[in-house]
User: What shape does this take?
Amino acid sequence: MSETNGGVAENLPRPEIDADECKSCGRCVAACPRHCLKIEARLNRRGVSPAAYIGEGCIGCAICFYNCPEPYAIKVLKK
Amino acid sequence: MTEKKTLGMYDSFIRSGKETRATHYCAGCGHGIIHKLVTEAMVELGIQDRTVIINPIGCSVFGYYYWDCGNVGAAHGRAAAVATAINRAHKNACVISYQGDGDLAAIGFNHTFQAANRGEHIAVIFVNNAIYGMTGGQMAPTTLEGMKTKTSPFGRDPLTCGYPMHVCEVLNQLKAPVYIARVSVADTKRIMQARQSIRKALEIQRDAKGYAFVEVISPCPTNLGLDPIKTAQFCIDQMEKEYPVGVIRDLTATAEPRKPDAATPTCREYFENDESQAPAAEVDPSAKELRLKFAGFGGQGILSLGICVAEAARMEKRFTTWYPSYGPEQRGGSASCSVVISGTPVGSPAVDHPDVLVCMNQPSYERFLSEVNPGGTVIVDSTVPLNLPVPDGVKVVQMPAIDLSIKLGVPKAANTMMLAALMKLNVTGLKNENLLNALYASFKKKPALVEKNKELVKEAEQWIEDNLK
Assistant: This one.
């Protein structure tokens, strides 16, 4: 898990994305008010391109979590 | 650090023997978003342990793999009926009926409407995606005008397919619902409104305040043939034109919590059954099975006469059946009943060949006379002409039951006259005392009639004494 979160400071808000559970619908990317999510070019185990955090900008609003139709693809960590 | 994560769902989902953490929904489907809102509210309101979700037929049929609470599957469209049963049997349960537009607005609409009208204590989550999802994109009642689907390839034409079904507005005509809202999960703002409404609907269940209905406009990218983002936009641009979002009714402030049920009488109290009058049957092989048929038209007391005889047999610890047969008419149609009295358990309550036949009108005489067993007795009212050949060994007796009862001023009591004839001719094998007690017991609620009937029986017996012996 969290393979795309490498290098993000531990104490900052951030989404944790389980890339293998992502179905690449793009709802989180479109909804993020800080535009800090992207669709990766690589394919996940499912064979689709998962969403990923660009590594900075997250304010912990959890909007991506509520827009995501999957129960376990995104969780958001914040203070 | 705090975590914002999914609550109230199983950690992993075991479907078809495989363990997964993903739902079975297509990418961009609204169901997953709504699932998360429902279970989040359920957990945060502290009602997870008493929540039962009714799983519908449709895409969300597999809810029980995901929702960590009680789950019950219902037949297509019957979720409201199942939810009704559960909330009545388990008053403390918070019942959620989660249904799609095919399940709720098509096959199950009457159930939905009636449950709403009864104000059942259920929260209904109605997922409206304007199409049949699971079956492959056919037109639904909620499909928009002009919208192309598998079964409306030229677009929905209201002339032949009707107009899109506005379920919230229809339910809003009813008195009972406490909360009705239409929300959407097409974008963040709308998802947050949906979150509020779903939470409200569950709060109403938590507080036992009544029926709550939340319609959720939900994107179906696969069957609309659009990508998830464009489908969400379609929900906003097209569906909301037809189905405006907002709270349509909210009576939570004034709705009263459910009161405890009024005390109900036991069956025995209700039927005023006296144990001493109905002892258990006892096996007595010496008592031959006797089959009786009572026939006439509805309103002559034919069925009551049969019950009287059956009751008397019960008092004598016989095995007894009473089996009525009548037409759709409340009064005036053909009516008959079959009574079997036996010393051993009765195999069939149907009487094809009676040993005793009582006929109160001509059609029943014509219909049943030829079926009477040899050695049997037929008692016919005197108004019936005896113009048919009588089977060998059958005794036919005429009794002026109708005329006598009219003469005595109680025209409804012709059946009592017939009972007197049964006693006097001694064809039932039952004690007269029991037949009379059964007759009097039938007037338990009208005691004045007991005395009157005592007189009538005496008169009838006197007539038989004078004329038949």
